[in-house]
Amino acid sequence: MESAISIFLEGRNLARLMEGVWITLKISAASVLLSVVFGLLVGLLMISRKPALQAATRFYLEAIRVMPILVLLYMFYYLPDKNWGLHFEAQTVAIGVFTLWGTAEMADLVRGALTSMPAHQRESGRAIGLTEGQVNRYIIIPQAVRRLIPGVINLTTRMIKTTPFIYFISVPELLKVGQQIVEISGMKNNMASFWVYGFIFFLYFLMCYPISCFSAYLEKKWQN
Amino acid sequence: MAVARPVLKITGLHKRYDQLEVIGNLSLEVRKGEVLVVIGPSGCGKSTLLRCINGLETIQGGDIELNGQSIIVGHTRWNLVRQQIGMVFQSYDLFPHMTVLENILLGPMKAQGRERAEATKEAEAFLDRVGLLDRKDSFPRQLSGGQKQRVAIVRALCMNPEIMLFDEVTASLDPEMVREVLDVILGLAEQGMTMLIVTHEMAFARAVADKIVFMDQGSIVESAPPDIFFQNPVSDRARKFLNIFQFEGVKKEERHND
With an 8 Å Cβ cutoff, are B82 and A143 in contact? Predict the structure, then answer.
């Protein structure tokens, strides 16, 4: 146990792990935020009656879904640099790719939340003399948001769990830092990988569990 | 009552879905304080008729007047028209994310811009009348079907409409809940509310109606006061339709004969 603690106390190890947590959280939070904003817009385009818009958004969603995140990361990190001399910061690429992915998922959630709304809800609102804007504001949107929350929470935890991929484009996120620590400490302490990865597991749990709890709380609150 | 002005006047109404004619050249009038009950086989266009009146369906010909004003010709602001027409649907359609009271207040406060205190007072009085004042802070999912439908009626009443439209409001209720809803409508009739009711409850239709309108295949086949209509329907189609609701005691007699 003592040797385990010494791993984290050695040099800046603990501080570096916390920096990894910070990068993971920062990239996830930025991506989720941007995904929600763009996802709402694309989701509205998806339910538009224009066939061209429907086809384009459908293609976007399916294309993103079949593409491994890693491929997208490589594509946007290396291609512009090699071919056009455009160099993007690795973290910028990470947020961009995660947003591209999150927007597609979010748009599909928005589409689902809106199309699953019974037509009668809108009609009842009209029948009591509300304008279309008021129907959206007081009836459709509040219900859509309630339907969206579980999906958004799920997307958030999935993003946090997918951040280790960005170490392939050399962003020093949590897992990457852990691996470096294991490589160095492992020479002196053969339990190093157990303690370090165990600690990382615990950190991911700390990041994701409160979010799940929050989701459960909202679902319970809105059950009435 | 006979000389009262028409609240609702429909002349030569045509409603088509693509090529399919759902309502053809239909005319009717509902006078102030009058209760018209529309009956007829499923798909005869009676629900569509109600939906045309408050603009949930577009019409392809004819005119609809509310208190002498056309709501078809010219630029209709439907949200203002609908404030004068209370409509209750078969599937209640309360807003699930709001309490009973919030459901009722939404229209008066947001559409009509009334004060919360004043609207609440009226809402509570109506709720009391339908026996649901103690449920005002409940959410729709905590209510039975019959209770939800009574709330839906109060929601429409609180707009103080000129006319109430009821679209098969008991059709999806369990039998023991039908009565409580119909009693509310009977109470409204007694107080002189102008109503246009679509229903399959024949006994209720007979009790509440000043006039029965029998529709088939998109037009009015006959209309008459309830006693005359139910005892001596003029048309074959009306007779056939009413026969559906008659049961003969054939089997019992056979058993006695054994």
Answer: no
